[in-house]
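Data deposition worksheet. Section B asks for the primary sequence of the deposited chain exactly as it was used as input, without tags or linkers unless they were present during the calculation. Section C holds the resulting structure in token form. Section D is free text for depositor observations; keep each observation to a single sentence. Incomplete worksheets are returned to the depositor.
Section A, Depositor: J.P.
Section B:
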Amino acid sequence: MLYSDTRYMLRAISAEQRTLWDKFITTHPNGHLLQSWQWGQLKASSAWQPLRLALWDNKAQQIVAAAQILRRTAPYVPVRWAHLAYMPKGPVVDWSQATLCEAFFRQLYARLAREGALALRMELGQLAGSAEAELVQQRLTSLCVQPAQAIQPLRTIVLDLTPPEDLLLAQMKEKWRYNVRLAARKGVTVRVAQTLQDVQAWYSLLQTTGERDQFGIHTLDYYQRAWQLFAPLNQMRLLLAEHNGQLLAGIFVALFAQQASYLYGASSNIRWAKQQGAHLYDF
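Section C:
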């Protein structure tokens, strides 16, 4: 398949262009939180070096595809010498356009090779087994991409938030509805975290939960950094459930590209996501 290098050009996006980047990622049907500018900033605090690359259409004068690539290398080894490249929930591209996909990937491969990438690992945003995922697989096979073991979940549960709130409640199991109403009657309240001390209190609860249920967690600094980056932009909330001043549960919920996503915690909050205009809730 042929394409014109003069029409499509792969460009690095600078910090001064971050608004342009997030506008494209937010409004694209395949946009995802893990491709947002702020997510790259968060991962930069834990030894990753983000690289944002956009395919520019010289004819339409706009971005038509993009990928945030996280790069990591061995201690004291410069990225340009050798590194591993990781693309979470990307690229953000219209997979139905074969010519566009080929232009993007051929230029992407060439650039990463020039800049020292030993390998590129991609974790797609499409749900495994979906019709869209099948199309993506066909495109990647034609580009000689090999399957690898996943890091991010291959499957998830997604709730449609467009129905009215009372209908969403009616669709829950009877026991769940009972528990929701019982908590309200018993005086359990939910509030939004306002300070780093709130995050620290939640983290203490998360440590206890992680030890009990035997799952790994990040450091306190990581969660506080996430809250500092996303909360001011209304792209993430830490919701805390309390009773008589005692913290009972908490959850980080992200909101990006009209989709809310459960990130960290041991419960879920759907009402806030719906009020903020999310169409889907990813558990």
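Section D:
The chain has a mean pLDDT of 89.
The radius of gyration is 21 Å.
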